[in-house]
Write a structure and sequence with these properties.
Layout lengths: L3 E6 L2 E6 L9 H17 L3 E6 L22 H9 L5 E5 L2 E3 L1 H8 L2 E4 L4 E3 L13 H4 L6 H10 L3 E2 H7 L4 E2 L4 H13 L17 H11 L8 H14 L2 H16 L2 H15 L16 E5 L3 H12 L3 E5 L3 H20 L5 H9 L1 E4 L10 E4 L5 H14 L5 E4 L6 H5 L8 E6 L8 E5 L6 H13 L3 E5 L7 H18 L3 H11 L5 H8 L1 H12 L11 H7 L12 E3 L5 E3 L1 H14 L8 H21 L6 H12 L8 H6 L1
Parallel strand pairs: 2-3, 3-4, 4-6, 5-7, 6-9, 10-11, 10-13, 11-12, 13-14, 14-15, 16-17
Antiparallel strand pairs: 1-2, 7-8, 15-16, 18-19
Helix pairs in contact: 1-2, 2-3, 5-8, 5-9, 9-10, 11-25, 12-13, 13-14, 18-24, 19-24
The structure holds (2S,3S)-3-hydroxy-2-methylbutanoyl-COA (T1G).
């Protein structure tokens, strides 16, 4: 049974691709299309409409085929053949026409989209470039700089923007297929447009081009593919269509074999495998219409906003009216920001505010299906809150804690039915950060776990399941390499050297800059908490304690590992550097000099060892859980795949 079927609508042949879940252009799809092309060139319908069944038009080449040699027919050859068809081909696009799917549409003579359709060239996110003519045909159809923007950023655009750019001939009014057939009839009555590949490339002034590309690639950091995509579009401007196509394919094939693409493809699938637990297979989650949030501070407000933006009703609780007003103001601030940035409409903004309420009386939580506690990180305070929740909430309500390191089993044991308690560890800012660490205590019920995973999906978060231990996955690994970074200071490095090594490796910022941003008092409190249980044999660096004892807590006090002037930029802190050098002398540690590679080898090694311990203890079920956590919680460079992937690679 071919995955491509043909039905005649009058003298129009309608080809339907049906290859769930996203109609990826697998070998079967390519073969089905090639067969349909040959058949329609013989049967000579007035025109051909190409559409897809299911939720989306072709969302790209089949990424699962990339680790094997490609099978005929090759996508570029198929698209060249479609472009050379003797009758109009109309691509009818719904859902997301991405990568090879969009290139397929570009090979068609006409394109029509549903109003909600999106198109894009996300290949750069897989460490690739478009490999079937996208970088060649696009700049011959629209403004080359706009073409470069699509290929270099990988960001999809809406149907209305595609229409404005000239990518769509029309936006469908009413049924997409009907509109496509009407367009096909119209096209059949006119001469075929000149194939894009044979069109001359538009002139683009070099300096203007370089300036535009510099802006587009500014955020690439250590990822190569955005630069490669820009170079491929440039090739398309400097060569004939046919020659540029060859150059594009060579570049694509080289990148397909590159370590960065292997890492990015790994993390693509890893992000789609996390959050799947055998315990929840076939288990129905509990209803999730209204959630409660206890605590209106930065985390509580972020969690409330994330839930509102995902269509949930939210009831916030704070200790008194003033605190609840302050919490509500924070939530309104976040929603106001989304409105200002055009992420939500005025009407949506008003509707979200109507779905939100803040109060200081726990009885307002009587209807909540799930409540997330996000109060001060103190065990006694948390237990008091859970006692109050147990009294106020309906027995089937799920009770969750947002603690980032406290013992969730102990919190669960503070209520009669501990099976309803789970950890939901959000990262700040909670309405932006993609990761949700679901901390699984010993007695949690399977449907409570299923409900937590369901909530993550509803919030468009990546759910990673973690066992209960100090710091779970994320903070446990972060604490371990923060400790290693402290050891490096005593051994001879200085904060700016460690941070530069981490930034040049691809981290968004170094560990000392990050601590100054978060506030050194948080780590200080954690070290004091651990002091009682820290093994005497464990090496301990007291430099950060010395800094905190002087009341220097980082950015918020203008001093920490670095000094912060008017411009807010971190500057080297001679006092701290003297403190570090004195600490080595005090312990008789000869100070060595470290290359950036040597610094990263120690930090990475530390992440990988802690990761291996986490796997051995069953705190994480797979290396994917650790890598997805490090990439999405701490900005570990995606194009490296994650510390565990690197270890195996
Ligand atoms: N190939 C294979 N499987 C794919 C796939 C693809 N292109 N896209 C998605 N899947 C699987 C995915 O693993 C998951 O499987 C299921 O579909 C649902 O995906 C020559 C070289 C389309 C926006 O980069 O961005 O074309 O986990 O959970 O949230 O130039 O999937 O259920 O088993 O993500 O609704 C370019 C990648 C390829 C698009 C839908 N295309 N996909 O999001 O569902 S390279 C892409 C996405 C290329 C050419 C080049 C998203 C989506 P499972 P999902 P979703």
């Amino acid at each position: 049974m071919s995955v491509v079927t043909t039905t005649m609508h009058g003298d129009i042949a309608v080809l339907t691709i049906d290859n769930p879940p996203v109609n990826a252009a697998s070998q079967a799809v390519r073969q089905g299309l090639m067969d349909a092309l040959i058949a329609t060139e013989k049967s000579k319908p007035a025109a051909v409409v190409l559409t897809c069944a299911g939720r989306t038009f072709v969302a790209g080449a089949d990424i699962r085929e990339f680790d094997k040699p490609f099978l005929e027919p090759m996508l570029p050859d198929l698209l060249n053949a479609i472009e050379a068809a003797t009758r109009p081909w109309i691509a009818a696009i719904h859902g997301t026409a991405l990568g090879g799917g969009f290139e397929l549409a570009l090979a068609c003579s006409h394109r029509i989209g549903a109003p909600s359709a999106k198109i894009g060239l996300p290949e750069v996110n897989l460490g690739l470039i478009p490999g079937a003519g996208g970088t060649v045909r696009l700049p011959r159809l629209i403004d080359p700089v706009e073409a470069a923007r699509l290929a270099v950023t990988g960001k999809p655009i809406s149907a209305s923007e595609a229409h404005k750019l000239g990518l769509f001939d029309a936006i469908a009014e009413g049924e997409l297929l009907d509109a496509a057939i009407a367009l096909a009839k119209d096209a059949a009555a006119k001469p075929l447009p000149t194939p894009l590949l044979t069109r001359a490339a538009p002139e683009v002034e070099r300096a203007a081009w370089d300036a535009a590309i510099a802006k587009l690639t500014a955020k690439a950091r250590g990822q190569n593919s955005p630069h490669e995509a820009a170079a491929a579009v440039r090739d398309a401007l400097d060569h004939s269509g046919t020659d540029a196509l060859k150059l594009e394919r060579e570049r694509f094939m080289r990148l397909k074999g590159s370590p960065q693409s292997a890492a990015l493809r790994y993390i693509f699938f890893a992000e789609r495998t996390v959050g799947k637990s055998p315990r929840t297979k076939g288990v129905a989650p509990r209803p999730l219409a209204q959630i409660g949030v206890v605590g209106g501070g930065t985390m509580g407000a972020g969690i409330a906003a994330a839930a509102l933006l995902s269509g949930l009703k939210v009831q916030m609780i704070e200790r008194d009216q003033d605190a609840s007003n302050a919490g509500a103001a924070r939530v309104e601030g976040i929603l106001g920001g989304s409105l200002k940035r055009g992420l939500i409409s005025e009407a949506k903004h008003t509707a979200l505010l109507a779905s939100f309420n803040a109060d200081s009386n726990y009885s307002a939580l009587a209807e909540a299906d799930l409540v997330i506690e996000a109060v001060f990180e103190d065990m006694d305070v948390k237990k008091q809150v859970f006692k109050a929740l147990e009294a106020a909430c309906k027995p089937e309500a799920v009770l969750a804690t947002n603690t980032s390191y406290l013992d969730v089993n102990e919190i669960a044991a503070s209520v009669a039915d501990s099976s309803r308690v789970i950890g939901l560890h959000f990262f700040s800012p909670a309405h932006i950060m993609k990761l949700l660490e679901i901390v699984v205590p010993n007695n949690v019920a399977d449907d409570v776990l299923a409900t937590a995973i369901q909530l993550a999906k509803a919030l468009h978060k990546l759910p990673v399941l973690a066992g209960v231990c100090d710091g779970f996955i994320a903070n446990r690994i972060m604490s371990s390499y923060r400790r290693e970074a402290d050891y490096l200071l005593e051994d001879g490095a200085l904060p700016h050297e460690v941070d530069a090594a981490m930034r040049n490796f691809g981290m968004p910022m170094g560990i000392f800059e990050m601590q100054d941003l978060a506030g050194l008092d948080i780590g200080w409190a954690a070290r004091k908490r651990r002091a009682a249980t820290r093994p005497a044999s464990e090496r301990y660096v007291d430099i950060p304690d010395r800094i905190c004892e002087q009341g220097h807590f980082g950015r918020k006090t203008g001093r920490g590992w670095y000094l912060y002037g008017e411009d807010g930029k971190p500057a080297r802190n001679p006092e701290v550097e003297a403190l570090i050098i004195a600490a080595s002398a005090r312990k008789g540690i000869p100070r060595l000099s470290f290359s950036e590679e040597a610094i990263m080898a120690r930090i990475l090694g530390c992440m990988q060892n802690e990761g291996a311990a986490i796997l051995a203890e069953g705190i994480a079920a797979s290396r994917e859980d650790i890598d997805v956590t490090m990439v999405n919680a701490f900005g570990f460079p995606r194009w490296m795949g994650g510390p565990m992937f690197m270890k195996d690679a």
